[in-house]
Amino acid sequence: MKAGPSRTNRPDNTAFTQQRLPAWQPILSAGIVIPGFTLIGLAFIGVGVALFVTSQKITDLEIDYTGVAATSPCFKCTSFAAENCMCQMEFTLTTLFEGPVFFYYGLTSYYQNFRTYGVSKDGYQLSGDTYYFNNPQDSCAPYQYDSNNNPIVPCGSIANSMFSDTFQLYQVVNGMKKQVPLDGKGIAWWTDYNIKYSNPALVNGSFANAFSGTVKPVNWSKPVYELDPTDQANNGFLNQNFLVWMRQAALPKFQKLYGRIAEGDYAQGLPAGNYTLLINYSYPVISFGGTKKVVLSNVSWMGGKNQFLGIAYLVIGSLCIVMAMVMLIIYAKYKFTDDDEDM
Amino acid sequence: FFPWLVCRWRGGDCWCRTVVSNLPYEDQRPRNQPNRRYAGNAVKTNKYTLWSFLPINLCEQFRRLANIYFVGIAALNFIPEVNAFQPQVALIPICVILTLTAIKDAWEDFRRYQSDRELNGTPCLVYSRSQHGFVERRWKDIQVGDFVQVLANDIIPADILLLHASDPNGVCHMETANLDGETNLKQRRVKSPFDPLSFNATVICEKPNNNLNHFKGFLEKDQIKIGFGIESLLLRGCTVRNTAAASGIVVYAGHDTKSMLNNNRPRYKRSRVESKMNKEVLCCVFLLFCMCLIGAVGHVIWLKTFSSVPIYFIPDSDGNETPSVVAGVYRFLTMIILLQVIIPISLYLSIELVKMGQVFFITQDIDLYDKEKDMRMQCRALNITEDLGQIQYVFSDKTGTLTENKMVFRRCTIMGTEYPHTENGESGKWVGQLWSHQDTTVGRDNILPALPMDRHRHRDSTAGIPSLAFSSPLEREVIPDQNLLWSVKEVERRGVAGHWGLQGATHLEFFLALAICNTVVVSTETAQRQRVRVRGPHNSSRSRGLLPECMEGLFAQFPCLRQLSSCLKSVSCRRHSLSEDPVQSTLYDIPTSSSSVVSEDEVQASSLAGPKEVHYEAQSPDEAALVHAAKAYGFTLLERTPSHVSVRLPSGTTLTYEVLDVLTFDSVRSRMSIIVRHPHTKEIILYTKGADSGIMERLRVIANKTQKHLDMYANDGLRTLCFTRKVVSEKNYYDWLVLRQGAMAAIDRKDELVRKTAADMETNLTLLGATGIEDRLQENVPETIQALREAGIQVCVLTGDKLETAVNIAYSCKLLDQQDLVFTFNTENTFSPALRREVCKNMLSGTLAQLPLYDTQEAKVSVGLVIDGRTLGLLLDSDLQEGFVQLCTHCRAILCCRTTPLQKSRVVTLLRSKLGVMTLAIGDGANDVNMIQAADVGVGISGQEGMQAVMASDFAISRFKHLKKLLLVHGHWCYNRLANMIIYFFYKNVAYVNLLFWYQFFCGFSGTAMIDYWFMIFFNLFFTSAPPIMFGIMDREVSAAVLLQLPELYRRGQHEGGYRRSTFWIAIADAFYQSLVCFFVPYWTYKGSDIDIFTLGTPMNTASLFTIIFHLAIEIKSWTVVHWVIMVGSVVVYFVVTLAFCAMCVSCNPPSDPYWTMQEQMSDPMFYLVCILTTVVALLPRYTLHALRGTLVPSDHLRARQIDNMPPHHRDLWLQEWKKLKDLCASYPSLSSSTAQRYSTAQSPSLTLVQDPSPALAQSPSLTPVQDPSPSLVQSLNPKLAPNQGLNSAAL
């Protein structure tokens, strides 16, 4: 403190220190609330209608192929003995299934969000760091090393349990099966494909050599560098289906994108007619009470078919309007008596 | 280490400390030093050293339960089966908290270390045998037994027994401002002559203790014991004044000194809200336990649903699955980690921050700033601000608290003749007017320091030290009574100085007693205290320019002051000439002749006769007033030393009395005496002054007339003092002296013995006369009491004054109303203790039996209770306590008189514990310290009587009226703010954490979090921490102006309206609801889709943030800029930080991978729709409820807010309407207002209040229930319990 002439203990007389800052003091009385409720209600009903209409336009088709029932074509594949079992499901479209159509596979009672399951991967390994090829992180245990103590790549439970069914969709045209192309490109997140995951550098010009000294996950039939025999670029950690699988589903009932139908004759959608879905059935779900399905869906700006949001908006909007009316009645009544008393 | 061992070894008693001189042992090794066992003078207040810091600090931090909780959680995370997050990451919160606390502690400790080092290194003078003189050493080198010399204006380095002073009388003056804030000089006296080299006595004194006003011991030298007390002890930390040099032997050093032992840390009080909050925290623990249990059981059940092992299960290292029950136990622990935030540990930190902010605003309040003393409101206890908003009982001292404690000599009676001093009364008034005028006009323009009348205040405001020595104009300006002055003149003319005839001598003796019989110190040479100076030439030139105009303006407004103006001008001119002096001059030596105001020639001549002006420093304002009164009649106290006292008589001659002894004042005797030898007659004369209760029974002749005058004074609310004189024969005196000296040297029961000897001397006194001193009420005291009462606060006044004085003040400050039914409990002294007890019991039971009669009638009589100290002592006994407490609850006002400090605190403790009420005690003097410490909230008034009360208090204010704003505004605000903040905090944590809990139902209760752990940390640390703190510091429901106008708004806090158990559970229920909405709206939206964990968590997190922020927005009552910035800022920070984190963290925190999730979501319109819907649905119930409540059942607070929003003139109209309405409502249950009185008398004919026309004659309004069926009850109820009536009731 400087010993100036004005040195006193007197507090500053400012609006802040004296707690006299100009303040807006909203009072929640019916008079202000009614217009507010009305506005919110109207806006919500508007949004709700838009959402509902949009959602109604979306069509989706679910085909359960678990094969629990003996009548199901895939029933034969549910027994343990079945190896490389193929089954096919038939379905008919009466109208054009408007494109672009997204092809999902769905699982239920499948807890990808189970905590120890979710932990079981090695992010460094998946980012192509070869050090972790030979030394997978402990989080992958017990899918860290195989019984011969060879490191597993990709290690961990998530990779190990990768969904292994494959699908082919055919349109039956005049008794002939015409394959509907399923575009499996670009179904994973852009950041996953380009930043988060990357393959190891080629060793001696060979991709497979980069993985030498490692073994494939226990449940896998092919090593990771041979996931897609048709497209060399779609192998390793950058395999699109692998990327989709590695992004763990939030809820035990989920679907994952398998491909898009956006090419050739089917760019406008699936025309009406009979279709056959050929399934290479290998993924066991019945043991834990799960189901498998295939979902065909076209999407809008709001994603897949979801009635909930539209309905919720409509309900809440209406509720607000009702509230506004109730308030109005109360306010009218009380305003009256208030006037009597006070004025 | 083993004190008993030391004692045994020394062969002495344990209660004492023996000190001998160190000089003979100067060259010897420390082992042989006799005083080596006593602490040295080096002080060390720092707790840590560089090396011990880490272990000790950590150790201390882990003593806190919260930290242990944190560490336990973090440790759990290291168990692989249990962990919920990466173990390293889970350590972050505890590390952050420990580090921050450690840094704070280290910094504080370093500051202490620095100040210690500076203090220890201060130079001082210590006697050295080898150099035969005092040599310079450092403070830390001083040992007990050293001889230390302190020069003028030096700070005393240790507690030193004074053995020599440069003053020929052996007096040393000491300023204790550093110690207790009292700025008047204290005298210290040499008891024994001394020479360092030959000093061979042994000092035996008490063990170190913290009593600043007490010390005893003796010097033992050749079998002679010389006793000494506190008056010979120089205290460490004080400053030597007016004395060139003083030296003595160190008896206590370093940490043993009284100042260090008094140096307590700020005490920790736990506020009521906080202790209640702790219970809610336990509720949270219970909640957490339940949720974890649900998780564990759920997990077990979930595991049981699987007949075989699913593909996504992870077997342990052996390839086996964990048994489900064990897994359940693991999940229980995992859940604790996951949901730990539900126990709001950060709440404690936030509360501390909030209270810091609240304290800042309270101390900043300009309305609580006292211009005169240049003092702000001080908050000494930092953590009970909100208790101010819940006060139910206020216990107040009277003198200095309700009244100014600036005494005005008002009237006196000499030999049965009363001198009313009518002019004096008027002068007091216009001095007061002048003051208030200055306050308003001059003060506003900030030219306050220029007025000469205002000298005293001027000095204070420039220097910033509290007022000292009671010499305000009020005390100095005494206008003599014409008749008395004439008779004094007559008497003096007739006799030669000192040889007046018997006739009329009493008049002179009376004034001599006034002048002599006190402990007032005359300080003429003030050079030593030049600390306070006139400001530099720059300022004085400015004031010189302004002064004449403002003076003119002043006199134009007050024509009655014109006669004053000449005098004032002359003084102000002198001031200016002084100020022009380039050398700064003190303000002390400016003569302000009080009597120059009066036109009486004689007086003027006599008082201006001396060349030097005197300045009095008194320890009590009464003394100052009396000395000034004597001076006004020409009896000027010129000098006082321990050995003699000089008085100038009106004739100009100076009488110098030899002072033989001073029997100091104590509250048990309630009188003081001085024994002097007359210079001419050589008679030994005892002058005694004291309260009439302490004097009247010791008189030779009963003085009925004087007693009547005294009663009249008391009824006028004046403080009375009687003056007596007694001539003591030489023989009697010397006989007595032997006893006295024996008593002084005693160590055991010394106080008692000294008191007894004093009482022995004070017998057979001859009454000279009595004085009536007015202690005026402080400004706005009645208004303040009125407002407190409207706020539902019971006001009790506990005073040491006599009953009549106290009752009178109580009426004038509106504590008691003329319409009140007043019960007076006063048992007479003449009864035997057993009888008194019986009477008291009967009175109590009678009153209690009668009270329901008044309560049940629709017109409730407000009851006042007046209790005398002796009766209070009986009532506080265990068997009557219950009745007394019950009685108190029925009384609107309680007034206890003649109470001792202990009784004051017992009343507070009793009511506090029996009724469970929140109490506040306010006082200004040392006698209030007990009470202040006993109450929940202690408020000290930094007044005239030193700083002890302030030192003991939690809050210090400078005027009683400040209590109004402190409680009604700040207390109210603080309580509401804190209560709302705490509730909100609980809500916030539950609402957020429950999101995770609901998710457990969809992930097999496995403890997965769908929100990244970093986000959870950030959420509490950055996104939602600032708004509640700001809410707790700054929210304002009702403005200060309206709160002051409508004190009844305060009642909410008293009944814990802001923070009930129900409020807590409603908040928790709301939190559950909101978290359900925040979870399930996104859940249903994304159900069955291909959304991944963290992408689902993003809208939940965002919606939760919006809900939590908007929830607060609903609760915030007034939006200032700060509110907007922090609220909007929090949302902005959320998005910025989240986006940045999501963009940077590719795989930095496995297993969670929030990478790009926020960006992904924000590019999806659904995200916004989900967030909007969620927020609206979550807040709809609360918003609707608020809106409905605002319309259907508007609370008083809401109405007050509506009033607040009105334009000013409307507002005033409304407030009037409101008050009228309230009065109307109040008139039915109570009799408080005058309109109510009308109603009630009409409605209840059975009750008639007989109002005595002159309250000055009746002791209290009496009550006669006209149609009372039981006559015995009438008697026992009659509040004016005369002794015989008391006897009757006792017999019944």
Pick out its properties:
heterodimer; A: 343 residues; alpha+beta; four-stranded antiparallel β-sheet; 9 helices; 29% helix; extended; disordered N terminus; B: 1292 residues; nine-stranded mixed β-sheet; nine-stranded antiparallel β-sheet; 46 helices; 33 strands; globular; disordered C terminus
Major sheet: arrangement of strands of chain A: 1-10-4-7
Low-confidence stretches of chain A: 1-5, 339-343
Query: How much of the polypeptide of chain B forms β-strand, as a percent range?
Result: 5-15%
- Secondary structure class of chain A reads alpha+beta
- For this entry, what is the oligomeric state of its chains? heterodimer
- Number of DSSP helical runs of chain B: 46
Rg of chain A over CA atoms, rounded to whole Å, is 30 Å
Radius of gyration of chain B: 37 Å
Number of helices of chain A: 9
What profile does the largest beta sheet of chain B have? 9 strands, mixed
> Between the first and last Cα atoms of chain B, what is the distance in angstroms?
64 Å
Helix content of chain B: 40-55%
Shape designation of chain A: extended
Euclidean distance between termini CA atoms of chain A: 56 Å
Greatest interface and its participating residue counts:
A-B, 89 and 97 residues
Outline the biggest β-sheet of chain A. Answer: 4 strands, antiparallel
- The H/E string of chain A reads HEEEEHHHHEEHHHEEEEH
In terms of structural class, how would the helical and strand content of chain B be classed? alpha+beta
Count of beta strands of chain A: 10
- The beta-strand count of chain B equals 33
* Sheet with the most strands: spatial strand order of chain B: 14-33-32-31-15-27-30-29-28
Enzyme class (chain B): translocase
InterPro entries (chain B): ATPase_P-typ_cyto_dom_N, ATPase_P-typ_P_site, ATPase_P-typ_TM_dom_sf, ATPase_P-typ_transduc_dom_A_sf, HAD-like_sf, HAD_sf, P-type_ATPase_IV, P-type_ATPase_N
EC number (chain B): 7.6.2.1
Protein name (chain B): Phospholipid-transporting ATPase
